[in-house]
Amino acid sequence: CGNQASMVCVSVSYNLGSGYIDQRDYEKAISAFESAITRFHSAEASSGRNLDKRLLASAHQYLAYSYVKMADSLTSDQSAQYKKADQELDHAISVLKEIEKVDETSPINLIRARIHVGLGQYDSALKILKEVKVTGPNEATMNLLFAVSYKCKGDVANSAEYMNRFRPPDPSETQEGFEYFNKLTGICRGE
Fold first, then answer.
1. Which residues contact 111 (CB under 8 A, 6 or more apart)?
2. How far apart are alpha carbons 171 and 116 in whole angstroms?
3. How confident is the model over 22-75, as pLDDT tens digits?
4. Which of 63, 102, 109, 159 has the most CB atoms lying inside 10 A of its own CB?
């Protein structure tokens, strides 16, 4: 696509970003989603009309997710990545509010809860998690975030209960989830 500003190129960049997430290459995913967002704005400006913003909202959402996943894997300077994730999530929610109902019960807020967990803001994470309504694969993420938050607050019983409910649909996510749990609970305990 080069520097073309068309919805086809927006879709190509978006799909590349999604592929990079699947490969767990978050740096490349970030670059691809940033390209999709830039191309979307250029395509909208050059067409002179409003384009379907669902793809733009999703690009911001998955850009936020990519920043969170990158921050989760870092051993230092995580706060800058979490801050970028928070900003992108705000953009995603802002765009989504133009086209659909988004509130504190929306599953997109799981990303915000994960940001709070990563920053050690467990009370804020728990407040969000108690309000979010999720089904399917998002339930596993929610249970994992509850487990980490409760463990870091010293509530081992609730942590164990939510970890027992942690059952992602993809077996590779089970191992990744346990690694995330061990890493973050180790950090909050000062290990």
1. 61, 64, 65, 68, 85, 89
2. 26
3. 999 999 999 999 999 999 999 988 887 778 899 999 999 999 999 999 998 877
4. 63
